[in-house]
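Notebook entry, structure prediction.
Reason for the run: the old model in the group folder had no record of what sequence produced it. Starting over properly, with the input documented here first.
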Amino acid sequence: MRRRAAVPLSTLGGTVALGAACVTWAAAYEVRAFRLRRFDVPVLAPGQRPLRVLQVSDLHLVPTQRRKIEWVRALAGLEPDLVIDTGDNLGHLDAVPPVLEALGPLLERPGAFVMGSNDYYAPMFKNPARYLLPAREVRLGKKRLPTEDLREGFLAAGWLDLDNARARLKVDHREIELVGTDDAHIKADRYAEVAGPADPAADLSLGVTHAPYRRVLDPMVADGLDLVLAGHTHGGQLCVPFLGALVTNCDLPRRLAKGLSSWSAGGHTAPLHVSAGLGTSPYAPVRFACRPEATLLTLVERPPTGLR
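New structure, fully documented this time:
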């Protein structure tokens, strides 16, 4: 029998050291290395001035995360015209006051929100390897979070609740049509209840959802919405440099796990922005090659030949 060559101790040691360095980077630095991403999105009618939309997603906030709270508060200095929160704000039973503190200055701007599963159910420990398995069952924590306290805080500030809802909002003297769903990851989405063609009289028709499942994206885009915003994926959270996300935690293609792309359905195509979000589960507080983020989307006029 042939003997298998032994791995040199120096190689084994180097591999262990590299792995330890990656874990340290992911847990001690990158998970707190918040960044603001910026995109120009050509969706407005020719002749319109730009509209600045700030998207905040997946805070997963716990009360002790003062650095994250202060970073989010500072986003108000961007003076966005509209703020969209795409869910999963809570990471602790006592997180509602810190979330409202973090978003406090932004709550003074026009805004809208949808909920994610982690606004309903407290986080629980899960084997991280499960996220690499296809078609796994969604497991939810047994403890319910103070969802209605969070909702009331947003509504008291004047933000619109888009959980399976359709609404209108005047922003910068323009009519914005907003259509949203509750979290598709826990099958709470009911888009059929709010479906319908985009209003041609609106200056902008915007779709909002937490988890970008195809069954939500397809009808939103087929209805002619100008732009769709989502979160949930964490951008993959643990990514491979130059390769990207290994998973999206939904049926969205991995190449669309974060950032600005496009989605086509029903003869229409619309820009899709998926936020990598600002947090993680408290039971998996690491990010690698996928920094936590918020996004400022500057909506600009589309080319004169573009179609709605």
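Summary: The first strand starts at residue 35 and ends at 44.
The old model has been moved to the deprecated folder.
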